[in-house]
Structure formats: C-alpha cells, structure tokens
Amino acid sequence: MRKAGLSIKKIYYLTGAGVLVTTIMLCAVIVLLFHSVKDILICLFTVAALSVWGFFLVMALQNRISQFTDHVCQTISVMMQGNNNLEEIFDEDTLLNRISYQLYRLYQMLLANKSAIEEQRADLQGMISDISHQLKTPATNLKMAASTLLEQELPRNLQTEYLDSMNTQLDKLEFLMNAMVKSSRLETGVIALEKQQAPVYETLATALGGIFLKAEEKKLKVTVDCSDTLTVPHDSKWTAEALFNILENAVKYTSVGGTIGITVVRWEAYTKIDITDTGRGIPECRHGAIFKRFYREPEVHNTEGIGIGLYLAREIISKQGGYIKVTSAAGSGATFSVFLPNG
C-alpha cells in the first residue's frame, strides 16, 4: 500500500508555525534595522496585520475544503446505497465545480449501467421462462411416446406412428434450439451484422429459396418486382434470414391457391421491401404483439410454429438501422414492409 503524504491539518499547522517563525524573525530584523520607535511600531503593526489576515485566510480555506469534502463524502455514501435521487452538486469555485461535475457524471453512468444490467437480467429471466414453456410440450410428448413404446406391445403400424410423432417432436426441439441460439447471439452481440453494398434481388432470391417447395405444395402464386441492379448496404445473410421468416409466415397462413407478392421500391432515405399475402390477416390490435418473442395468435395455436420468426426478423432489421411495418386487418391479408436505410 502506498504511504499517504501529509494531512491537511498537519499542513495547516506547519504553515502556521512557519508564519509565526517568519513573523518573529521579521520583528527581530526590524528592531535591528530601525532605531526610530515610530518606524518599528509601524513595521510591527504591518507584520501583525498580515499575520492575522493570513491566519483568517488559512482558516477560511480549511473550512471551505472541509465543507466540500463532507458534501462529496455524503454524495459517495448515497451512491453506495444505490439512491436514485441524487442531485447534482454545483459550486461557485471553478476547480471544485469540475470535481463535483465529474462525480455527478460518474454517478449517472453507474445508474445507466445498473439499469442496463437490470434490463438484461429481466430479459434473461424472460428468455429462460419462455424456453421452459416452449420445451415443456415436446418434451412431455416425447416422454409419453417413449413410455408407451417401452411398456406396451404395439403392432408395427402403431410403432411407426409413435416413432414418426417422436421424430416430429425432435424436429420441433431442434428448430426451437436453433432459433433460440440465433436470438441469444443477436441480443448479446456475439453476432455482429456486417453491412455491405449488395443487390437486394440476390438477398430476396436466397430467402425465396427457403419457401419455394412449401409454396409449390400449396399452389401459391409468388411474384417478385425488384430490379436486379438495385443495391443497398445490408448484411445479405442475416437480411435473407429476416425476409425468409416473414415469407415463411406468409406461406403458412395463406390458403391453397393464394398469392404472395414482393415489391421493392427505392425511396430517398430507405429502400422498402413489401411482402403482401392473401392470408387470414392480422387484427390491428395485435400489430405490436406479433413481434414479441414466442407470441402466437390464439386462433393459430394448432398451426406449426413457435412464434419467434417475426421477433428475429425485427431484431435483424433494427440492428441495421431499419424497421418493419405491418399493414393488415382480419380476413384481408397482410403486408409486411421492411425498410432498409440507403446509407
């Protein structure tokens, strides 16, 4: 541990002793140099007056520093207790005001960090709760199917049905875990999106490749209106992931023989990608809720899915400085507009 220097009190004592010794020496010199009593008295009075003023100056400085130190110590105590009602310290003295201002800034930074940690903790707790809820159903189904196969003698056809059911549940678990890994890596910043000037058409083609077979099975008509020369700074891989999630929902909730249209328009500040379907539509009161993690509308709980696609899409687009807007009403299809900044 580094040894501390002289305390303020010792400095005052040493300064006072020095002033006293200097005063005595000055008085002795004055007596030796001057022979006139009047001159000696004037000099002694002057020295005495300066000594008194010096004494009051030292005392005032000591009191001033003591008050400021007490105030700073009280402020630090409040900070240690986690009190959020700390007021900024203002002082007329420029040097002391700089110290108090920096202390106040430090306190504000600590509060901001504390708030961020609390938000992250709440998000983590929510994520754990969501994962637990989502894993419960497939895990229970797998356990029941496995118990039935182990405890009962079943015909070959029933065994096959149970095994197919278990395989479906395992696929759901794998999809869920992959989605959660992507979500957590995006939220924690493990994955850094790299924006580069790239053609939007190629990104759309990648996204469409993931839904092509399902769209064919439902005989959906998919149209694309996008210039192959239009380029926008974006992360092609993750933007394709976001568009795929939106397109997958469009395919899932559009009836057989319906249509899905994709239109890309370049605006002054943004490039807008509209994905329009003729599906069941979304009530206006739920437009905000559909982007929440694991949210699913009550009417579609029997449809395959876990409700994380739109959440991921919004996270990916927002991390690139863009946003997603939905226009829809129940029974009249939906349009998801993805806005990517041009610069």
Pairing-aware structural class of the strands and helices?
A: alpha+beta
Q: Which ranges are low-confidence, i.e. pLDDT below 50, for 5 or more consecutive residues?
A: none
Q: How would a crystallographer describe the biggest sheet?
A: 5 strands, mixed
Percent of residues in beta strands? 5-15%
Number of E-type strands? 7
- Alpha-carbon distance between the two ends: 54 Å
Mean pLDDT: 79
Strand order of the largest sheet: 2-4-5-7-6
Instruction: Sketch the topology as an H/E string, one letter per element.
Output: HHHHEHHEEHEEHEE
Number of helices: 8
- What is the CA-based Rg, rounded? 38 Å
What share of the residues lie within helices?
55-70%
The rough form would be described as elongated
Give keywords:
343 residues; alpha+beta; 5-stranded mixed β-sheet; two-stranded antiparallel ribbon; 7 strands
How would you explain this protein's 3D organization?
The chain is of the alpha+beta class and 343 residues long. It contains 8 helices and 7 strands, in the order H-H-H-H-E-H-H-E-E-H-E-E-H-E-E. Strands 2-4-5-7-6 form a 5-stranded mixed β-sheet, covered by helices on one side. A two-stranded antiparallel ribbon has the order 1-3. A hairpin with a 5-residue loop joins strand 6 (323-328) and strand 7 (334-341). Helix 5 crosses helix 7 (236-252). The longest helix is centred in the middle third of the chain and has 58 residues, at 94-151.
